Protein: Phosphotransferase family protein
Amino acid sequence: MSGSHVNSNGRNNLLDTSWRPDADELTERLTGWIAERFPAGSRLVQAAFPEEGGSSLNLMFSVEDQEQQIERYVARMSSLSPQQQTFPDEDLERETRFMRVVRRHTNLPVPEILHYEGDRSWLGSPFLVMPRIDGRPWPSDPPYNFSGWVLDATPEERADMQRRLIAVIAEIHQVSADRCDLREFERPHLGSDPLECQLNYIRELYEWGRGGVRYPLVETALERLSSSMPRRSEPACINWGDSRAGNLLFHEGKVTAVLDWEGASLGRPEVDVGFLCLMHRYYQQRAESLGIRGLPEAFRPSDVAAEYARLTGRELDDLLWYETLGATRAAAIQVRVMARAGGPDHGSDPDQALSIAPVLRDLTAWLDR
Structure:
């Protein structure tokens, strides 16, 4: 996710999928698993990976039953080795528990986990199986503000989808410690306060992922965030973690699925809202750096905060701090992706290798004011 690895079409050349296992090689293993776990007479029709890469492996497959009815599924796999992991604590079982608790306590279309398979012998890693749901996400590579169906939509359609995304985030935050038991998700080794835990986790991710290279910009951001951390005493809520339109499926203008819970944790509402605003800021900066207008009118922090307050009655505080938190987290992930791809060029400025560096630099400077 390096700035030098974002091409003129906005595509991210560091989303390397060459380490994926061959889908054909998995077919025989998956066939055996289906014979064990599905009703008698079920058979695998096809299995393939989607075009877009990501931090997880999503194997799409279809199964035909005895009545020749075909159902579509997604097998979300863990990384096949520690060298391929994006996060040090990758844990599909925890992700499953987050999805189930949000599904249980909200009306959101979080996919049902049909199976969680912890036995690595089947596909080479643990995996969970969900139904495949109709819909399309806002594009992430290249981003939606470069080209594609979102940019081609009317301003009214985009505004409606933006409101629906904010409503999803607001409903996730209704799953809070004063309404249900969330103690299973606490991380006392990272701190006693959920916000402190999130900041310490980003620091842990950075130290684990940097591959011996120091990134002064990231380290400065961590220091600034630590010295200016907002203090709150309200009950923690669930944070989605990767709160952006690329992790929703839309069909005929409605949200059909809320996806990608690997970054879920306990926190404050501002964490998700700040990350949403941050990711659009990042996409918009990338577009404008290439002379593309993008969508400057989308996901303005003041508009997002006003809509969130309208839905929940809660005013959001310190959003600039939370955007900086989100940018630092994104930078730490880019650091890991860079290390996994061999690291920045020898002798170059490591900070310049991070495509999010201009945004993080600006946010850190504003935090100092």
